[in-house]
Structure formats: C-alpha cells, structure tokens
Amino acid sequence: MLVPKIYLVDDSYDFRILAKALLEAYLPSAAVVAYENGLDMLKDHEKERADIIITDTNMPHIDGVNLVNEARKIDRQTTIVLLFSGTIESPGLTEDMIASCEANVILSKPAFVDWIKEMFKE
Q1: What strands, in cross-sheet order, belong to the sheet with 5-9?
Q2: 77 CB-contact burial (10 Å; exposed 0-12 / middle 13-18 / buried 19+)
Q3: What pLDDT does residue 94 have?
Q4: Residue 120 pLDDT
Q5: Which SS3 state, helix, strand or coil, does residue 44 take?
Q6: Contact (CB, 8 A) for 58 and 91
Q7: 32-64 in b/e burial notation, b at 16+ Cβ within 10 A?
Q8: Given CA atoms 79, 80, 81, 87 in this order, what sign does their dihedral have?
Q9: pLDDT tens digits, 33-43
Q10: ∠ CA(38), CA(40), CA(42), 5° rounding?
Q11: What residues have CB less than 8 Å from 114, skipping those under 6 apart?
C-alpha cells in the first residue's frame, strides 16, 4: 500500500499541531511531516518528494509564494496548498503575487478545515 507523504509548513506551532492532527485523523495512512521553516522542508523535498505540500503564506526565511515556486522547480507533480490568514494579502505579498504562484489550491486557514474534511472523507 502506497503511503502518501504530506509536508506541512507553518511557523505557528499551534497551527502545525492542529493541522497535523486533523490530517492524521482524516488520512491515517499518511506520513505527515511538520516544519517550522520552509527552507528545511525544501531540503527534504529534494531528497524525498512529498505528494502534498501545505504551506502558510507569511513566514520568516521564505514566504509561502516563494516556497511554492521553489518546490515546483523540484517537482511539478506535487499537490501544493497555499494557506493565508485573514486577508489574502500579507506583508510583502500582494493578491496578484499569490494568485500567480503555482499552488493547486489557495485557501484561508479557516477554510482549510472544511477542505480537509471534503478531500479526505470516506
């Protein structure tokens, strides 16, 4: 049986814990790896490709848009979900920049819970 690998990237500890628990509840066979830093995730993604990457937009070291673009250079097949808090625009990122990145799905963090339930329901 193929075990899906999910990389979860968010600088918020609380959100990482919540999202990881939610993913594991709805997709118990998945290997979910949580990262505080997108640069660390990219290093691992180069070694072992993720099936799904879920990343926050506004983070230190590398923002979510640039993380998506760098992950696409490594693997064009990975499903990438870009999350944002509050409004879609973040410091240094405009709505156009976010919309033009190569994420498969762009969601607010509150909508993420519903997306997980819908995508992985039995």
Answers
A1: 31-35, 5-9, 52-56, 79-84, 105-108
A2: exposed
A3: 65
A4: 75
A5: helix
A6: yes
A7: bbbbebbeebbeebeeeebbbbbbbbbbeebbb
A8: negative
A9: 999 999 999 99
A10: 70
A11: none
